[in-house]
Amino acid sequence: MSLVEITEASHNVNLDLKYATADNFTGKPVYARAACYLHPEAEKCMILARELAAIQGYRLHIFDAFRPSEAQWKLWHHTPDPDFLADPRRGSPHSRGVALDLTLIDSATGKVLDMGTGFDAFTPLSHHGNTEISAAAQKNRMLLMGLMTTAGWDFYRNEWWHYQLFDARDFAVLGDADLSEPLTAP
Fold it and tell me: Region 164-184: what's the mean pLDDT?
């Protein structure tokens, strides 16, 4: 199965691939290079989400998409928390190329919308429906969820940023060998 590369130029989205930098919960790069991929079915849903967001004056701001199984193991070894990370023995929707971690940017101002926590904040404050965050952040999360679910994505209740295809487990787990150039840092 070949994955589709998602770039800012080809897909008109913002990429802020956290696992290609030290700006993630591990404190070091998990990916050797900043590249974003999706399964073709997920790409179709992402394009629809992008179009729906644009109508409302927003852009998609992507933190992560396809995550090779090797990278999932690195994350799991760092923080084996099944409330926030898929156990790599079962396979993550990210490792199947059918998940996105993202937020929204206001197209007029270029500002990232306030979602009440940052990306990968492994806390109950990150849960959908959490009423301890501001009303504005709750509204922004509902906006993101509305756009994404309308475009064919399912949400994960513990992470406001995570969306996956409804039938994610029907797709094969993929790794670095499925790419022309490995993604996971040595």
Answer: 96
